[in-house]
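Title: [Solved] Sialate O-acetylesterase 3D structure

Original question kept below for reference.
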Amino acid sequence: MKKILCLGLLILLAAAARAELKLPKVFADHMVLQRELDIPIWGWAEPREAVTIEFQDKRYRTRADKEGKWTLKLAPSAAGGPYELTVSTKGTSLVFRDVLVGDVWLLGGQSNMEWALKNTNHGEDSIKVADFPQIRLFEVGRNMSLSPMDDVPEATWSLCSPEAVANFSAIGYYFGKNIHRDLDVPVGLLDINWGGTVSEAWTSPDALLTHADFSEKVKNNQTNGPKDFSNPDDRKPNSWPTSLYFGMLEPVIPFAIKGALWYQGESNAGRAYQYREIFPLMIADWRKQWGQGDFPFLWVQLANYKQPKEKPEDSDWAELREAQTMALALPHTAQAVIIDRGEAGDIHPRDKWTVGERLALAAKKIAYGMDVVYSGPTYKSMTTEGDKIRISFDHLGSGLVVKDKYGYVKGFSVAGNDKVFHWVKGYQDGNDIILSIGEITNPVAVRYGWADNPDDLNVYNKEGLPANPFRTDDWQGITFGKK
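Solution (posted by the thread starter after getting help):
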């Protein structure tokens, strides 16, 4: 009899827990809701229970389904606040205070996006003046899962202050500060990243099941993988495709956002040709899962890293940069080139201010339609003129600049049909670059900045943005076929 009573009590307690009015942690005091878009709100209540939301003098009603899940959308709103948002059922009322409406940006990727402001160049100076109450910081704690989750275990909203921002993403902070300053709107930053991770860990099974390199592993993980990652030996995200998508990202979808920032690729550099496929696959996947159409997706191209080489060589990092550039074929995308901001001995360049500023330029063009120069020179064409080669560019801005008092360029190499590259000399001719072929027979290919660390590149536009590394050949690279 006691066992029956205990079982009955447990059932009642479980039912009560399910019936409690609850929203995911992304809805909380101090949150920022996306302006000028429908605002999805969702949560849980007693099955079939009526749910009412009040916001900006408007009232919305819905009803939980048979499982207790409910969802609705608030009407688009202009930037402003602070407001209160009230969610209530017959017996319970939740009030979220100090709610702003502005622009919400997702910060995704690995350690360079995660890198804390306190660990950057002049970070302590930036922290001292980081008092921006209309910039709000949302941080998701590290978590892994191979199946859908209702919510993340750990996440908080906070106002941007010296105390809150010290351990926050430096790139995210500098980007958010720039957008808030120049557009005069509240900014919410969703910090959802994990150092050292691969892009497939952040991609849904729906997408990865369509890719031959991952479909079988995803199926196997879903069937035989760990259920709760309680074993420390299992807590290796790169071993489990989709684990961070479910564990950290999917629980905040479809919280309305303006766009996404992405800094990742180092951990995929050994499989750069594969990245040509899985990076745009991830972007398309996120857009599909959010249901917001082709929202702006901006990323950081890999910086220069490792020791410079005396002779031109193949490079997996150069191939990864090329794969990132190829993803620009997707609509509403841009990349911040930081080939001039890396450090040979440190995979984590400490200059995050420049990265945030260049991402903000890209956002102003792609997300806000402002008339700004947001890209450095990009390769346009190559023509042979006797013993010289002329290279022309797009995205010149106000004009080409070579940062050398004599106008001599660096970082260019040329190869003939033997596919052996040699450094070549060159100079600026208006908005073109002229390269001297020298003794190279039948030159057919040019490369610029094609190295792990092409540390002496000096081609920019007048706006100070560096030229994007490129190659004119399509010869098979060293990461071809690697999985």
